[in-house]
Write a structure and sequence with these properties.
alpha+beta, Multidrug-efflux Transporter Regulator, Chain: A, Domain 2, 3 strands, disordered N terminus
């Protein structure tokens, strides 16, 4: 079962009514979640993180994690930059 199915399948831990518009995303995303969201492999996400191309991660119980709000903000900023015309 993919993590996207987990998000839709009643995964409510860490989600609250009136959140920041993340839809079905959990409040904390781990490497597999971020990889699926970005359409990349977990290895590609780890390499991008090491190169500083992703928002600064947190360490939760020894695992890399990102806050949903940080990821959504980063995605909206990066799309705005890539779609802007000179």
């Amino acid at each position: 079962m993919g993590s996207r199915a987990r998000w839709r399948g009643g995964f409510t831990a860490g989600r609250e009514a009136g959140d920041d518009g993340g839809g079905d995303l959990p409040r904390i995303l781990y490497v597999p979640d971020l990889a699926e969201l970005l359409g990349r492999s977990e290895k590609a996400v780890r390499h991008a993180m090491r190169r500083g191309l992703l928002p600064e991660p947190l360490k939760l119980a020894g695992r890399l994690a990102w806050r949903r709000a940080d990821v959504l903000s980063w995605v909206s900023e990066s799309h705005g930059v890539s779609r802007s015309e000179p």
